[in-house]
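Narrative of activities, Objective 1.

The group set out to show that a structural description can be obtained from nothing but a protein's sequence at a throughput compatible with the screening campaign. Below is one input-output pair from the validation batch, recorded exactly as produced.
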Amino acid sequence: MENTNWLKQTPDKPLFPDLLWSRPENKRQAGKLLIVGGSSHGFATPATAFVAAAKAGIGTARVLLPDSTRKILGTSFAEAIFAPSTPSGSFSRQASAELLENAEWAEGVLLAGDFGRNSETAILLDSFLDKYSGQVTVAQDGLDYFLGPSSKLVNRPNTVLVINLGKLQKLAKNNRPSTPVLHSMNLYELVTVLADWTNSCPATFITKHADNLVVASGGKVSTTPERAESNWQTVLAAYASVWLLQQPQKPFETLSTATCAYAMK
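Output recorded for this entry:
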């Protein structure tokens, strides 16, 4: 039986080609993105996201890092700004003011990753989602703080999860136990689960399975043949963030086209 909620595209045949040509041409009108992540143990992920956001066409981007990285970076990263860190080098609860201030400056926030596992960072990110109502994209280990029951990401509007199948399986187990996500699923089965799930939750999921990138939003699902890229989650999260802040009216169409643009690059 054909799933009428499942739309398929390829890089040379996007589902919504008009969106490819209706983006801002002026850099000043191309949006402002805040990228958050990093710790003293690593900050390659937010740096990669920054480069990808530039390729995706962002107008202006800032990268918020814990101040434990300041000595390592020096003045080599002009777009970096710093917030208080814990003794172990992750974001502390005291980073809340800087995070909220810069999020209000931006039109979208990407929680990119490399946060590490830290209880204060968990409190910071949880509090941020409570206080900030704007567009948020979450990827990599930023997702790890929200995989438990009653996840704030699943039930939050204006939220995109760029998530691998393993984490999606855990999130589904804790938030949708009647319909488990399994690695053994074929693509049709996963599409069916995601279409049903997003019919009843406001979040958007972007994942990868069976050689396809999968976008699920509002009960509709699109698939795009995947590119062989090890850091697909970080780069695709940046593309999703940029495209959605530039064209927020139709998230499914926009994010499907962002995925196509990513596959075309």
